[in-house]
Each structure stands twice: as structure tokens, then as C-alpha cells.
Design goal:
This protein has about 120 residues and is mainly beta. It has 1 helix and 8 strands. It has one domain (about 20-120): Macroglobulin (MG2) domain (Immunoglobulin-like), CATH 2.60.40.1930. The chain is about 15% helix and about 50% strand. The strands form 2 sheets. Strands 1, 2, 3 and 6 form a 4-stranded antiparallel β-sheet that branches. A 4-stranded antiparallel β-sheet has the order 5-4-7-8, with no helix packed on it. The longest helix has 18 residues, at about 1-20.
């Protein structure tokens, strides 16, 4: 009986976390002439976003197809609510062709999300 109650509570908590407001707001691209994220002068990818909550963030570039991390841009980066954070990934010129996106893990909240609107293709 206690196990059934525990499972039901866990499911309700999980659903509540899914229904919460997004963790990331106000995505923006730092470099965007010609609608590109990749700076043709340096072959680096630059972007920015801000988090909705104060937390320590791990920020990574991941391959969309496999979900594998190709670059860790920050580990336990302190972030305040709505403080814009800027990132630059200089490894774009050496990464294999493919589609990439940015993943952020919130340590205290123990939640991970993909940054909306920041995804790019390397050819």
C-alpha cells in the first residue's frame, strides 16, 4: 500500500515539474548577420540566453542526432534570474558536420532543458 502511495506521489510531482514555466527565457543570438550563428570570420558559434531562476548551470553543446555532448561551455556557472549569459564555442570549425543545440542543466533544481531557438547546422 505504501509503495502505491509513493508511486502516485512521485507521478504527481513529476507532472507538476513538467507543467512549470520554462527554465530559459529570452533566447538571443550574439552573432547573426545573414541569419547565421556561425561567425564566418572565426568559425565560432556565439549565443546568449538568460535563466529564469537563480542556480548553478552546466551549459553544453550537444549533437541533435545522438544527444552526445560535444563541448562543455560552463560547469556550475552561477546565474541570477534574468541575468543575460553569453557564450562562444570556438570548436565549431573542428566539429563534424551535423545539427547541434545547447543544453542547460540546473544543479539545484536538478532539471535539464534545451535552449529554445538556439540550434545550428555545421556543414
Amino acid at each position: 500500500m505504501a509503495l502505491a502511495v509513493a508511486v502516485a506521489v512521485a507521478l504527481l510531482v513529476a507532472q507538476h515539474l513538467k507543467d512549470k514555466a520554462p527554465l530559459i527565457d529570452g533566447t538571443g543570438v550574439v552573432w547573426h548577420p545573414a541569419q547565421g550563428l556561425i561567425d564566418p570570420r572565426t568559425q565560432a558559434v556565439s549565443f546568449s540566453f538568460y535563466a529564469r531562476y537563480s542556480d548553478k548551470l552546466d551549459v553544453s553543446v550537444i549533437a541533435k542526432r545522438t544527444g552526445r555532448t560535444v563541448a562543455a561551455l560552463a560547469r556550475e556557472l552561477p546565474a541570477r534570474p534574468f541575468e543575460r549569459l553569453y557564450f562562444r564555442w570556438p570548436g565549431a570549425s573542428s566539429a563534424p558536420p551535423g545539427a547541434y543545440e545547447v543544453r542547460v542543466h540546473f544543479a539545484r533544481l536538478d532539471r535539464t532543458t534545451i535552449v529554445p531557438s538556439i540550434n545550428f547546422d555545421l556543414r
